[in-house]
Amino acid sequence: MMSGHFSSLAYAYGLPTASGQLKQSPSDFIVTEQLSFEPSGDGEHLFVLIKKIGLNTLDVCEQLAKHFHVHPRNITYAGLKDKNAITTQWFCFPFPIKLTADFNGFESESITVVNAIRNTKKLKRGAIKANKFEITLRNLSGELSNIEERIQLIKEHGVPNYFGAQRFGHNENNLVNVRKLFSGKIKCNRNKKSIYLSAARSFLFNEVLSQRIKNNTWNQFIDGDVAVLNNSRSFFVLDDVNAEIMQRLEQGDVHPSAPLWGKGEGISVGEANKQEMLIMATHSEYSNGLVQQGLQQDRRATRLFVNDLSYQFNDNNLILSFSLLSGSYATSVLREIINEVNFG
């Protein structure tokens, strides 16, 4: 079953009436990463595009480090990818220009080198234009016509931009650990601390978004709202919800937003701020802890458009193909299509 927090969140189109199963095998969840730039072909940084099966991103980092005799922390990647899947993603590490990369003995049933190319600068986290997904949902049951109706709604209106269940860890352990961190019961390294703090921020964002869905405002502006530019981290407070801003909203140029909580005064004002502060007060253990940790407030769009969405039924299975901007979650799309019984 889906974890408690994620499964409790409101649905934009009501609870789906069709069910299915995800990740019965790695081939049921295929992800291909698209960088936000093209490697130059020159330079002291080697970019390696790897197709991996049944391994997580850090597993591949370890094998690259061992094969090329580099320190694991010198190997960078744009984003983490699932283990129980077939994923294709870029890795990068410094490699002297005078040397030729030898992958002999590196590849296996789990790892295939798709491409290797040099670049003048290293690969940074988040340097992803989009992720392309091909997902198979098996053993469908219930009202299958409801699936097609929902896909059409998603094409037209998008989905709530929830942080996915994987953000919170197995059995939501990241939320358990961040509470221990806030109370001083545990200490952890910088990487784990970042994961735990992100889980707390994601929880609060999801709770605000869920309430806006209940209020029918997740894809509409309200008084005091903060507009986020499409495919951007830029945002601005709305002085007035006028015809021009409504047209930009309709065209997908801007989106409503919810807070990524941290220190400082609330960015929203008016009714939007009132609603957000109520959620922060309800979950003060998380909101106060984030402030004490010194994180700066930010914003994230509440609406997510799903690009190039297509589907086909194959026997009792549904095959979905779509792409999402970096930082978005496929499970947040899937939960609006089927009442999934096992999110893997």
TrEMBL record:
Gene3D superfamilies noted in UniProt: TruD, catalytic domain (3.30.2350.20), TruD, insertion domain (3.30.2340.10)
Assigned EC number: 5.4.99.27
GO biological process, one term: tRNA processing
Organism: hydrothermal vent metagenome
Xref: PROSITE patterns: TRUD (PS50984), UPF0024 (PS01268)
The TRUD domain, residue ranges: 158-308
Enzyme class: isomerase
Record lineage: unclassified sequences, metagenomes, ecological metagenomes
Entry's Gene Ontology cellular component terms: cytosol
UniProt cross-references to SUPFAM superfamilies, sorted A to Z: Pseudouridine synthase (SSF55120)
Keywords: Coiled coil, Isomerase, tRNA processing
InterPro entries in UniProt: PsdUridine_synth_cat_dom_sf, PsdUridine_synth_TruD, PsdUridine_synth_TruD_CS, PsdUridine_synth_TruD_insert, TruD_catalytic, TruD_insert_sf, TruD_pseudoU_synthase
Protein name (record): tRNA pseudouridine(13) synthase
Pfam families: TruD
